[in-house]
Description:
It contains eleven helices and ten strands. It is of the alpha/beta class.
Amino acid sequence: xxxxxxxxxxxxxxxxxxxxxxxxxxxxxxxxxxxxxxxxxxxxxxxxxxxxxxxxxxxxxxxxxxxxxxxxxxxxxxxxxxxxxxxxxxxxxxxxxxxxxxxxxxxxxxxxxxxxxxxxxxxxxxxxxxxxxxxxxxxxxxxxxxxxxxxxxxxxxxxxxxxxxxxxxxxxxxxxxxxxxxxxxxxxxxxxxxxxxxxxxxxxxxxxxxxxxxxxxxxxxxxxxxxxxxxxxxxxxxxxxxxxxxxxxxxxxxxxxxxxxxxxxxxxxxxxxxxxxxxxxxxxxxxxxxxx
Length: 292
Ligand code: DGL
């Protein structure tokens, strides 16, 4: 990919802010890389759109990062991975890693390590409507021998985007009435999902926005008397990327990561909400236009 003296450029792409959870996991694992992140915020959400539209948006976003010098591309978006991974791989001459296979592998490991595996235990996947309709997670998990139930949760992305969280975006006021709405929506989704998958032992967060709801998901599962192991594919994806990079080219170790961010809509909103996903302030955000 590069010579050892040249930092690897890793492109990270998401429909918006959620993929920053993947970048957050990548930074300590591959600190010597240069990162370019694109949040296609103008065209978000992808999760409610058709396969053709998602593939068109995702391929144009991936091409942009390749043009900016990406040596490797991480599709840090479940919906884009589920519906457009093959199209992106066909369009780019660089390695492309999505989130679904690493997430499925991590769920498999968790299910195998489960202290009380039951013969009919299963994985519950929460994701956007488009990801669920693609059945990409069911295919990946079935191939690993796991029973899977998928549940579409279309209201969760907008609620997270609006910051209606018990742990709100920095510099905003926590509004209990708003976070109570999110808690109630989540309770309805989980109640419906558990009715369909009463023996689920592992919960796979199949959408980049859901890690921000993890504490709420855990407390809701407790109150429903159904605790589960929760898997966030961001960490598993970062591990897969680190292994790929280590195999390809030894990287220098003593450099601070350099991150450049691109957004297709408001830079201010990207900085404010994005810092919550990344866990640190965001600088160097550039506005770009990828068309419709
Ligand atoms: N990034 C998307 C995902 O992980 C969620 C947001 C969207 O619908 O675009 O599925």
